[in-house]
Amino acid sequence: LLQILRILTGNRMWLTGDMTVETVNTFLRENAVYTVNPLTGTAYSMGMSLRLKILCLPTLYGAISRFTGMTPVDVVYRLIPCITLLLSYVAYGSLGKALFPENSVKRRTFLLIVGILFSTGAYMPGVDGFDVFYGGFRGVTIRAAVLLPYLLSCLMDRKYTGMILCILAEACIVCLLVTVAWLILGALVSQFRKRWEKRKMTDAHGRSGEEATE
User: Fold this and answer.
1) Is the Cβ–Cβ distance between 33 and 71 less than 8 Å?
2) Residue 48: DSSP 8-state
3) pLDDT one-digit tens code per residue, 101-122
């Protein structure tokens, strides 16, 4: 609750290289998406990159602003960062459950540590705490604070539907790379374990044969 209050009462946002509010305002004014450059107010004269076309966050924020009557500034700088913060705790809670399935005390301690790191890590861009409190509306923040911890929990619990949803929601290659790396690591560990168990069985049989001979 204190962290939500910090977001709601804060006036400093991480806006370097960002034009989300301008884009949302343009969508609402034109009643269309990506038809006008939000920086110049003129129609796009050249084609847009696929990366911009598939970004749906400004469209989502514009829809929320239209249906709720909230201003784009309040939606982008207040409402969405609060939702991102809450979802991050849900994602880390799921990860804590995957890490400590039988120990609720460790799960609560894990979440407490996450909360402390959020509060103490709000000193520079790129740190999760700063990104959540001052840029919770950005796609990179949602990816780092929500999608990646939830993806890790899905990988540990073998929830393949959740993995696919994370990859589709992220519109970037990072989650896919994490999934591939995890699967490769799991396969290597499985092979190492099988070889280790086979070697132990061979050694055990060898010792049994020697004892029988004696």
Assistant:
1) no
2) P
3) 888 999 999 999 999 999 988 8
